[in-house]
Design brief:
The protein is of the alpha/beta class. It has two domains: 169 residues, NAD(P)-binding Rossmann-like Domain (Rossmann fold); 141 residues, N-(1-d-carboxylethyl)-l-norvaline Dehydrogenase, domain 2. It contains 17 helices and nine strands. The strands form two sheets. It has a six-stranded parallel beta sheet, with helices on both faces. A three-stranded mixed beta sheet has the order 7-8-9. The radius of gyration is 20 Å and the shape is globular.
Length: 317
């Protein structure tokens, strides 16, 4: 009975981009009605085509849904979505739960939590572990933190769009875990690109390298997820745009500096992401740091086509 009741609950979605659009798709497939808003017309159009109910503003979403998921790209977008003229705060009702799934600073999320609490609403800190491609495949984990009763009320919603959900404790622990996860992602993405560049320089077919290394102890989740893009030398469509991920890098760097904790591998990774932006890869996936390494290795500008690369592409299709 509880599951059937939850499936009829209207869910609000603010932010319908790579991540938010994937959440909405899976919730709709799980028979949740979803009302959503995004300032980008194309994303709203795609949401409508999936069966979603388009709202005219964040305030309208908040006035209609008692559980709202937010997935936003920047602090400025978050401030506008929550407290702009037609933001969530303008329409939110007492008792509403907001599942905040973006990667932002703890200080920003704590300010949002306090300001929403004055309106009787509860903000949960629920960052996501996974890329846009993983979100599309419902292969993400939620690191939820905050009020336990509010979390329990949303269990069915989390199950609707995520592979797994962890309740991590008091507000902010979810974000701290996400910072640790993204620290590893930053390093592992570069290590995958480094392996590809070394293999190519040694004359190894990259399709072969991807298949063999991916089946052994040297693999990683980032090698599996971004390896095919590196094999093909094509970094679109992006699972995470390099220019957006720079925000995550800046957040982690500030976080670990406050902790006064040494992060030698993370620190060594940062210049390669900066170089990717400078070389024009900002709108491409973060796998584009592979192009930075190839350039430094003196490899030719385009990757040759091969049977091995075509096989790797078929394997991951």
């Amino acid at each position: 009975m509880k599951t059937r009741k939850a499936s009829r609950q209207l869910i609000g979605q603010v932010g319908l981009g790579i991540m938010g659009g994937a959440f909405a798709k899976h919730l709709l497939a799980a028979r949740f009605p979803v009302v959503g808003y995004d300032p980008v017309v194309a994303q709203v159009r795609a949401f409508r085509q999936m069966g979603g109910q388009a709202a005219s503003s964040c305030a309208e979403v908040a006035s209609r849904a008692k559980v709202i998921i937010t997935s936003l790209p920047s602090p400025a977008a978050m401030e506008e979505a929550f407290f702009g003229k037609n933001g969530i705060a303008a329409g939110v009702r007492p008792g509403t739960i907001v599942i905040e799934a973006s990667t932002m600073t703890l200080e920003l999320k704590e300010r949002l939590r306090r300001r929403l609490a004055r309106r009787g609403a509860c903000l949960l800190d629920c960052p996501i572990s996974g890329t846009g491609a993983q979100a599309a495949a419902k292969d993400i984990a939620v690191y939820a933190s905050g009020d336990r009763r509010a979390f329990n009320r949303c269990r069915g919603v989390f199950d609707g769009f995520a592979r797994s959900t962890y309740y991590c404790g008091e507000f902010g622990i979810g974000s701290k875990l996400k910072f640790v996860a993204n620290l590893l992602v930053t390093i592992h993405n570069l290590s995958a690109a480094e392996a590809m560049a070394v293999g190519e320089r040694a004359g190894i077919d990259l399709g072969l390298l991807y298949r063999v290394i991916g089946d052994g102890a040297g693999s990683s989740r980032m090698f599996q997820v971004r390896g095919p893009m590196m094999v093909a030398g094509r970094y679109e469509p992006p699972h995470m745009k390099s220019q957006i991920y720079q925000k995550d890098i800046d957040i982690i760097r500030a976080f670990v500096r406050r902790l006064k904790c040494p992060t030698p591998l993370f620190d060594a990774s940062i210049p390669f992401y900066t170089a990717a932006l400078r070389q024009g890869w900002g709108r491409h996936d973060t796998a584009a740091i592979h192009a930075v390494l190839r350039k430094r290795a003196g490899l030719r500008s385009s990757l040759p086509r091969s049977a091995g690369r075509r096989a790797a592409k078929r394997k991951t299709a």
